[in-house]
Amino acid sequence: MRIERIAEDKRRFLPLLLIADPDEGMIGRYLDRGDLFALYDSGELKSVCVVTAESETVCELKNLATEETARNRGYATALIRHVLDVYRDRFSVMQVGTGDFPKTLRFYEQCGFVFSHRVAGFFTDHYPEPVFEEGVLLTDMVYLKQAL
Q: Where is the N-acetyltransferase domain (predicted)?
């Protein structure tokens, strides 16, 4: 397994990024200003994430996506551990915003994140089309955080 920071031609990863964030316009708002990381196993792309600086002390995991056939094999967890290590000396907190979906929230909690706050109506107010996760309509953005 190897993880690379991608500096050029980040949009080539758009098909995978759209799994975690279904709006290309939203991805465009953070992709260029963020750091893109790609995890490969046996030379094949398995998972990606984008991390942005939100302030001098806070960075945010904006997008974390794993190929459907590669899920539940620890790739996303390995990618999170990697970015936590990368940003530990530069920021004091990493946050992540996600839909209010129990399975996803449990995943981030298992990775050491704790509830921070909720933005009511985020998905209905900021996305042109309804956003679903496993058939469930997302409305609120739930933020979790982890001290670095």
A: 1-134
Cα 100–Cα 73–Cα 133 angle in degrees, nearest 5? 25
Q: Are 136 and 97 in contact (CB under 8 A)?
A: no
Is pTM beyond 0.85 here? yes
Confidence of residue 146 (pLDDT cuts 50, 70, 90): very high
Distance CA(69)–CA(101), nearest Å, equals 21
Radius of gyration of the chain (CA): 14
Residues 6+ apart with CB under 8 A from 36: 5, 6, 10, 13, 48, 49, 50
* CATH superfamily to which 2-147 belongs: Gcn5-related N-acetyltransferase (GNAT) (3.40.630.30)
DSSP for 86-141, please give it: HHTTT-SEEEEEEES-HHHHHHHHHTT-EEEEEETTHHHHH-SS-EEETTEEE--E
Residue 39 and residue 81 in contact, taking contact as beta carbons nearer than 8 Å? no
Q: How far apart are CA 52 and CA 90, in angstroms?
A: 12
